[in-house]
Automatic annotation (TrEMBL):
GO terms for biological process: L-serine biosynthetic process. PANTHER family: PHOSPHOSERINE PHOSPHATASE. It is an enzyme of class 3 (hydrolase). It holds the Pfam family HAD. The gene is serB. This is phosphoserine phosphatase. GO terms for cellular component: cytoplasm. It catalyses: O-phospho-L-serine + H2O = L-serine + phosphate; O-phospho-D-serine + H2O = D-serine + phosphate. Its EC number is 3.1.3.3. Signal peptide: none annotated.
Length: 169
């Protein structure tokens, strides 16, 4: 799974194909796995404080992820994220089927959500900031007024106008 993810983030694999291959490896796992995954995830130092600071200045914060709602939603709620879009894992009778359902969060969906959320808030795209780390984030990074490569793969660092190279805020 890690190898497939890494190759997709470097832009070597089609994201949709890579996602389906990764998810297929999860077939048969109990949905209790989400609790175990959540317990292992930690926010980068300063991430929640950054969201709080942005809110105090009147900004909205969105998270569009190629990850899964089953963990992303809980993290977003804990951090106070205003908008969330991620992939959905199919679960039947308490077990993962190895499939996703609904709209897959591709690079085009990431751009669409940036545009939707900007329009919803009466903003021009030039008034938005987008951060990402993988090839799937590049179109979104390039569409925003300020595009930032965050601890990103080389392909993203080479094309993003701004970079954050340390994981802590």
């Amino acid at each position: 799974v890690a190898e497939i993810t890494e190759r997709a983030m470097r832009g070597e694999l089609d994201f949709r194909q890579a996602l389906n291959e990764r998810v297929a490896t999860l077939k048969g796992l109990p949905d209790s796995i989400f609790e175990k995954v959540y317990a292992r995830i930690h926010f980068n130092k300063g991430a929640k404080e950054l969201v709080d600071e942005l809110h105090s200045r009147g900004f909205k914060v969105g998270l569009v992820s190629g990850g899964f709602h089953e963990t992303v939603d809980r993290l977003a709620k804990e951090a106070g994220i205003d908008y969330v879009k991620a992939n959905h894992l199919e679960v039947i009778d308490g077990f993962l089927t190895g499939k996703v359902y609904g709209e897959i969060v591709t690079k085009d969906v990431k751009v669409a959500k940036l545009k939707d959320w900007a329009a919803e808030n009466g903003l021009k795209l030039s008034q938005n900031i987008a951060m990402g780390d993988g090839a799937n984030d590049l179109p979104m990074i390039k569409t925003a007024g300020i595009g930032i490569a965050f601890c990103a793969k080389p392909i993203v660092r080479a094309q993003a106008p701004y970079q954050i190279t340390e994981p802590d805020f």
